[in-house]
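Exercise 3.2. Students should predict the tertiary structure of the chain below and write it as C-alpha coordinates, then compare their answer with the key that follows.

Predict this chain's 3D structure.
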Amino acid sequence: MIPGERKRAHTRIVRLTAAFIGGLAMLAGVQVAAAQETVRIALPTKTYFPTIIAETAVRQKLFEKEGLKAELTVYRGGAEAFEAVAAGAADITLGSCAIVAAGINKGVKTKAISGSGLGYNGWYLMVKADSKIKDVSELAGKKVGITSAGSASDLLAKWTVSAKKVNFTSVPLGGGGLVPNLLSGNVEAIVLYSPLSFKVLQDKTARVLIDYGAAVPQHLSGVWLASDKLIATKPELIQKINNALFGAMASLKSNRQDAIKLISEIDEIPPKVAEAELDGNILKLSSTGEMKAEWVERALDLAKLIGMTNLAPASEVYTTKFMPVPTKP
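Answer key:
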Protein backbone atom coordinates (compact mmCIF):
# COMPACT_ATOMS: atom_id res chain seq x y z
CA MET A 1 0.00 0.00 0.00
CA ILE A 2 1.40 3.37 -0.99
CA PRO A 3 1.92 5.97 1.77
CA GLY A 4 -1.06 8.16 0.76
CA GLU A 5 -3.48 5.22 0.72
CA ARG A 6 -2.07 3.95 4.03
CA LYS A 7 -2.75 7.35 5.63
CA ARG A 8 -6.29 7.51 4.26
CA ALA A 9 -7.03 3.98 5.48
CA HIS A 10 -5.71 4.83 8.92
CA THR A 11 -7.93 7.94 9.02
CA ARG A 12 -11.00 5.86 8.10
CA ILE A 13 -10.20 3.33 10.85
CA VAL A 14 -9.82 6.12 13.42
CA ARG A 15 -13.15 7.65 12.36
CA LEU A 16 -14.98 4.32 12.43
CA THR A 17 -13.52 3.52 15.84
CA ALA A 18 -14.57 6.92 17.19
CA ALA A 19 -18.05 6.48 15.75
CA PHE A 20 -18.31 3.01 17.27
CA ILE A 21 -17.22 4.25 20.72
CA GLY A 22 -19.58 7.21 20.42
CA GLY A 23 -22.40 4.84 19.53
CA LEU A 24 -21.65 2.68 22.55
CA ALA A 25 -21.66 5.76 24.78
CA MET A 26 -25.02 6.88 23.39
CA LEU A 27 -26.43 3.38 23.84
CA ALA A 28 -25.18 3.29 27.42
CA GLY A 29 -26.78 6.68 28.03
CA VAL A 30 -30.10 5.43 26.65
CA GLN A 31 -29.89 2.32 28.83
CA VAL A 32 -29.17 4.42 31.96
CA ALA A 33 -32.08 6.73 31.15
CA ALA A 34 -34.32 3.74 30.52
CA ALA A 35 -33.24 2.21 33.83
CA GLN A 36 -34.26 5.31 35.76
CA GLU A 37 -37.60 4.93 37.52
CA THR A 38 -39.76 7.99 37.99
CA VAL A 39 -40.81 8.98 41.50
CA ARG A 40 -43.60 11.54 41.87
CA ILE A 41 -43.25 13.73 44.96
CA ALA A 42 -46.20 15.80 46.17
CA LEU A 43 -45.04 18.91 48.04
CA PRO A 44 -47.53 20.51 50.46
CA THR A 45 -46.62 24.05 49.39
CA LYS A 46 -43.71 25.83 47.71
CA THR A 47 -41.88 27.65 50.49
CA TYR A 48 -41.81 24.83 53.03
CA PHE A 49 -38.98 22.55 54.19
CA PRO A 50 -40.06 19.42 52.22
CA THR A 51 -39.59 21.47 49.05
CA ILE A 52 -36.10 22.52 50.17
CA ILE A 53 -35.14 18.90 50.87
CA ALA A 54 -36.58 17.47 47.64
CA GLU A 55 -35.19 20.27 45.46
CA THR A 56 -31.76 19.88 47.06
CA ALA A 57 -31.83 16.17 46.26
CA VAL A 58 -32.74 16.97 42.64
CA ARG A 59 -30.10 19.68 42.21
CA GLN A 60 -27.37 17.53 43.71
CA LYS A 61 -28.46 14.61 41.48
CA LEU A 62 -29.03 12.37 44.49
CA PHE A 63 -32.13 10.79 42.96
CA GLU A 64 -30.16 10.11 39.78
CA LYS A 65 -27.46 8.37 41.81
CA GLU A 66 -30.19 6.09 43.15
CA GLY A 67 -31.39 5.39 39.59
CA LEU A 68 -34.47 7.59 39.95
CA LYS A 69 -35.97 10.54 38.12
CA ALA A 70 -37.87 12.82 40.50
CA GLU A 71 -40.95 14.78 39.44
CA LEU A 72 -41.91 17.44 42.01
CA THR A 73 -45.43 18.89 42.13
CA VAL A 74 -46.45 21.69 44.51
CA TYR A 75 -49.96 21.57 46.02
CA ARG A 76 -52.02 24.10 47.99
CA GLY A 77 -51.53 22.34 51.32
CA GLY A 78 -50.75 19.12 53.15
CA ALA A 79 -54.26 17.68 52.79
CA GLU A 80 -54.25 18.07 49.00
CA ALA A 81 -50.78 16.54 48.75
CA PHE A 82 -51.98 13.59 50.86
CA GLU A 83 -55.01 13.19 48.61
CA ALA A 84 -52.68 13.02 45.62
CA VAL A 85 -50.91 10.01 47.17
CA ALA A 86 -54.26 8.46 48.10
CA ALA A 87 -55.50 8.87 44.52
CA GLY A 88 -52.32 7.42 43.01
CA ALA A 89 -51.33 10.75 41.45
CA ALA A 90 -48.17 10.91 43.58
CA ASP A 91 -45.88 8.36 45.19
CA ILE A 92 -44.86 10.15 48.38
CA THR A 93 -45.47 13.35 50.30
CA LEU A 94 -44.73 14.84 53.69
CA GLY A 95 -47.63 14.86 56.14
CA SER A 96 -48.54 14.13 59.75
CA CYS A 97 -49.05 10.94 61.72
CA ALA A 98 -52.60 12.10 62.33
CA ILE A 99 -53.49 12.35 58.64
CA VAL A 100 -52.12 8.84 58.09
CA ALA A 101 -54.08 7.44 61.06
CA ALA A 102 -57.29 9.17 60.03
CA GLY A 103 -56.96 7.96 56.47
CA ILE A 104 -56.40 4.30 57.40
CA ASN A 105 -59.81 3.95 59.05
CA LYS A 106 -61.40 5.60 56.02
CA GLY A 107 -59.89 3.08 53.65
CA VAL A 108 -56.90 5.22 52.59
CA LYS A 109 -53.99 2.93 53.34
CA THR A 110 -50.70 4.78 53.75
CA LYS A 111 -47.75 4.57 56.12
CA ALA A 112 -44.98 6.83 57.31
CA ILE A 113 -41.68 5.65 55.78
CA SER A 114 -39.35 8.04 57.64
CA GLY A 115 -39.53 10.76 60.26
CA SER A 116 -38.67 14.36 59.47
CA GLY A 117 -40.09 16.95 61.88
CA LEU A 118 -39.88 16.63 65.67
CA GLY A 119 -41.86 19.75 66.46
CA TYR A 120 -43.36 22.79 64.79
CA ASN A 121 -40.19 24.87 64.64
CA GLY A 122 -40.70 28.10 62.75
CA TRP A 123 -44.52 27.84 62.94
CA TYR A 124 -46.39 30.77 64.47
CA LEU A 125 -49.85 32.16 64.98
CA MET A 126 -49.39 35.65 63.60
CA VAL A 127 -51.27 38.92 63.24
CA LYS A 128 -50.38 42.08 61.32
CA ALA A 129 -47.76 44.22 62.98
CA ASP A 130 -50.27 47.04 63.50
CA SER A 131 -53.14 44.78 64.60
CA LYS A 132 -54.97 45.80 67.77
CA ILE A 133 -55.09 42.15 68.82
CA LYS A 134 -52.61 41.53 71.63
CA ASP A 135 -53.80 38.19 72.99
CA VAL A 136 -55.11 34.95 71.48
CA SER A 137 -58.38 35.35 73.37
CA GLU A 138 -59.16 38.39 71.21
CA LEU A 139 -59.46 36.12 68.14
CA ALA A 140 -62.85 34.88 69.39
CA GLY A 141 -65.33 35.08 66.51
CA LYS A 142 -62.60 36.15 64.06
CA LYS A 143 -61.19 34.50 60.91
CA VAL A 144 -57.83 32.70 61.01
CA GLY A 145 -56.10 31.62 57.82
CA ILE A 146 -54.77 28.08 57.31
CA THR A 147 -53.46 26.33 54.19
CA SER A 148 -56.14 23.64 53.89
CA ALA A 149 -58.43 21.45 55.98
CA GLY A 150 -56.57 18.44 57.39
CA SER A 151 -53.16 20.09 57.04
CA ALA A 152 -50.60 20.82 59.74
CA SER A 153 -51.80 24.42 59.88
CA ASP A 154 -55.35 23.15 60.46
CA LEU A 155 -54.09 20.88 63.26
CA LEU A 156 -52.32 23.80 64.93
CA ALA A 157 -55.39 26.02 64.57
CA LYS A 158 -57.49 23.34 66.28
CA TRP A 159 -54.83 22.92 68.97
CA THR A 160 -55.10 26.66 69.61
CA VAL A 161 -58.88 26.45 69.97
CA SER A 162 -58.53 23.56 72.42
CA ALA A 163 -55.52 24.75 74.42
CA LYS A 164 -56.43 28.44 74.59
CA LYS A 165 -60.21 27.95 74.95
CA VAL A 166 -60.99 30.35 72.10
CA ASN A 167 -63.37 29.85 69.17
CA PHE A 168 -62.53 31.26 65.74
CA THR A 169 -63.24 30.31 62.14
CA SER A 170 -60.45 28.62 60.17
CA VAL A 171 -60.31 29.76 56.55
CA PRO A 172 -58.42 27.62 53.96
CA LEU A 173 -56.29 29.96 51.83
CA GLY A 174 -53.54 27.76 50.39
CA GLY A 175 -49.89 28.25 51.24
CA GLY A 176 -49.48 31.17 48.88
CA GLY A 177 -52.58 32.95 50.14
CA LEU A 178 -51.80 33.23 53.83
CA VAL A 179 -49.65 36.37 53.97
CA PRO A 180 -51.54 38.36 51.28
CA ASN A 181 -54.87 37.73 52.99
CA LEU A 182 -53.46 38.71 56.37
CA LEU A 183 -51.99 41.95 55.05
CA SER A 184 -55.16 42.82 53.14
CA GLY A 185 -57.30 42.30 56.25
CA ASN A 186 -59.34 39.39 54.91
CA VAL A 187 -58.35 37.41 58.01
CA GLU A 188 -57.29 38.61 61.44
CA ALA A 189 -54.54 36.03 61.93
CA ILE A 190 -52.78 33.17 60.16
CA VAL A 191 -51.00 29.95 61.10
CA LEU A 192 -47.73 30.43 59.24
CA TYR A 193 -44.79 28.12 58.63
CA SER A 194 -41.15 28.86 57.97
CA PRO A 195 -39.42 30.38 56.07
CA LEU A 196 -42.35 32.70 55.35
CA SER A 197 -42.74 33.28 59.07
CA PHE A 198 -39.11 34.40 59.34
CA LYS A 199 -39.52 36.67 56.33
CA VAL A 200 -42.53 38.58 57.69
CA LEU A 201 -40.82 38.85 61.07
CA GLN A 202 -37.72 40.35 59.47
CA ASP A 203 -39.89 42.63 57.32
CA LYS A 204 -41.76 43.63 60.50
CA THR A 205 -45.09 43.20 58.71
CA ALA A 206 -46.41 40.67 61.25
CA ARG A 207 -45.89 39.70 64.87
CA VAL A 208 -46.28 36.53 66.92
CA LEU A 209 -49.12 35.51 69.21
CA ILE A 210 -48.01 31.87 69.63
CA ASP A 211 -44.67 30.19 68.91
CA TYR A 212 -45.85 26.65 68.18
CA GLY A 213 -42.32 25.24 68.29
CA ALA A 214 -42.19 26.15 71.97
CA ALA A 215 -45.86 25.79 72.91
CA VAL A 216 -46.82 22.39 71.44
CA PRO A 217 -45.44 19.28 73.20
CA GLN A 218 -42.65 17.65 71.17
CA HIS A 219 -43.80 14.79 68.95
CA LEU A 220 -43.28 13.36 65.47
CA SER A 221 -44.81 16.30 63.62
CA GLY A 222 -43.75 15.52 60.06
CA VAL A 223 -43.29 12.22 58.22
CA TRP A 224 -42.56 11.18 54.66
CA LEU A 225 -45.35 8.80 53.69
CA ALA A 226 -46.34 6.46 50.86
CA SER A 227 -49.23 4.16 50.02
CA ASP A 228 -49.30 0.63 51.43
CA LYS A 229 -49.55 -0.64 47.86
CA LEU A 230 -46.32 1.05 46.77
CA ILE A 231 -44.54 -0.09 49.94
CA ALA A 232 -45.59 -3.69 49.28
CA THR A 233 -44.92 -3.78 45.53
CA LYS A 234 -41.82 -1.56 45.27
CA PRO A 235 -39.86 -1.67 48.53
CA GLU A 236 -36.59 -0.99 46.67
CA LEU A 237 -38.06 2.26 45.34
CA ILE A 238 -39.05 3.38 48.85
CA GLN A 239 -35.53 2.70 50.11
CA LYS A 240 -33.96 4.67 47.27
CA ILE A 241 -36.31 7.63 47.88
CA ASN A 242 -35.39 7.72 51.57
CA ASN A 243 -31.69 7.48 50.71
CA ALA A 244 -31.87 10.49 48.37
CA LEU A 245 -33.98 12.64 50.69
CA PHE A 246 -31.73 12.07 53.68
CA GLY A 247 -28.66 12.53 51.55
CA ALA A 248 -30.04 16.01 50.90
CA MET A 249 -30.61 16.50 54.64
CA ALA A 250 -27.02 15.52 55.40
CA SER A 251 -25.76 17.93 52.76
CA LEU A 252 -27.86 20.83 54.06
CA LYS A 253 -26.58 20.27 57.60
CA SER A 254 -22.92 19.82 56.72
CA ASN A 255 -22.20 22.88 54.58
CA ARG A 256 -23.68 26.08 55.98
CA GLN A 257 -22.88 28.50 53.14
CA ASP A 258 -24.03 26.14 50.41
CA ALA A 259 -27.21 25.42 52.38
CA ILE A 260 -28.04 29.13 52.75
CA LYS A 261 -27.46 29.62 49.02
CA LEU A 262 -29.68 26.67 48.11
CA ILE A 263 -32.49 27.67 50.47
CA SER A 264 -32.36 31.23 49.14
CA GLU A 265 -32.59 30.02 45.52
CA ILE A 266 -35.24 27.36 46.05
CA ASP A 267 -37.58 29.52 48.15
CA GLU A 268 -36.70 32.74 46.30
CA ILE A 269 -35.96 34.52 49.56
CA PRO A 270 -33.11 36.79 50.71
CA PRO A 271 -30.03 35.05 52.15
CA LYS A 272 -30.77 36.56 55.58
CA VAL A 273 -34.18 34.84 55.63
CA ALA A 274 -32.63 31.63 54.30
CA GLU A 275 -30.14 31.70 57.17
CA ALA A 276 -33.00 32.04 59.65
CA GLU A 277 -34.73 29.05 58.03
CA LEU A 278 -31.56 26.99 58.27
CA ASP A 279 -30.99 27.81 61.96
CA GLY A 280 -34.60 27.94 63.07
CA ASN A 281 -35.89 24.87 61.24
CA ILE A 282 -33.67 22.82 58.90
CA LEU A 283 -30.95 22.12 61.47
CA LYS A 284 -33.63 20.89 63.88
CA LEU A 285 -35.08 18.33 61.46
CA SER A 286 -34.27 14.64 61.74
CA SER A 287 -31.01 13.52 60.14
CA THR A 288 -31.78 9.82 60.49
CA GLY A 289 -35.48 9.37 59.68
CA GLU A 290 -35.91 7.55 62.99
CA MET A 291 -39.46 6.93 64.21
CA LYS A 292 -40.26 5.67 67.70
CA ALA A 293 -43.59 4.31 68.93
CA GLU A 294 -43.79 6.91 71.70
CA TRP A 295 -43.22 9.76 69.23
CA VAL A 296 -46.04 8.50 67.00
CA GLU A 297 -48.34 7.89 69.98
CA ARG A 298 -47.72 11.41 71.24
CA ALA A 299 -48.63 12.79 67.81
CA LEU A 300 -51.88 10.82 67.82
CA ASP A 301 -52.66 11.89 71.39
CA LEU A 302 -52.29 15.49 70.25
CA ALA A 303 -54.67 14.82 67.35
CA LYS A 304 -57.24 13.33 69.73
CA LEU A 305 -56.83 16.30 72.03
CA ILE A 306 -57.99 18.60 69.25
CA GLY A 307 -61.02 16.47 68.46
CA MET A 308 -59.79 14.03 65.79
CA THR A 309 -61.52 10.66 66.18
CA ASN A 310 -61.49 7.20 64.61
CA LEU A 311 -57.70 7.10 64.36
CA ALA A 312 -55.80 3.91 63.61
CA PRO A 313 -53.38 2.75 66.33
CA ALA A 314 -49.78 3.93 66.23
CA SER A 315 -48.50 0.49 65.20
CA GLU A 316 -50.36 0.79 61.88
CA VAL A 317 -49.16 4.31 61.11
CA TYR A 318 -45.48 3.72 60.37
CA THR A 319 -42.86 1.23 59.23
CA THR A 320 -39.17 1.14 60.14
CA LYS A 321 -38.15 -1.15 57.25
CA PHE A 322 -36.63 1.66 55.21
CA MET A 323 -34.09 3.38 57.43
CA PRO A 324 -32.19 5.79 55.16
CA VAL A 325 -28.65 5.21 53.95
CA PRO A 326 -27.97 8.82 52.88
CA THR A 327 -26.86 9.20 49.28
CA LYS A 328 -23.63 11.16 48.97
CA PRO A 329 -23.47 14.13 46.53
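Discussion points: The first helix runs from residue 3 to 35. The chain has a mean pLDDT of 90.
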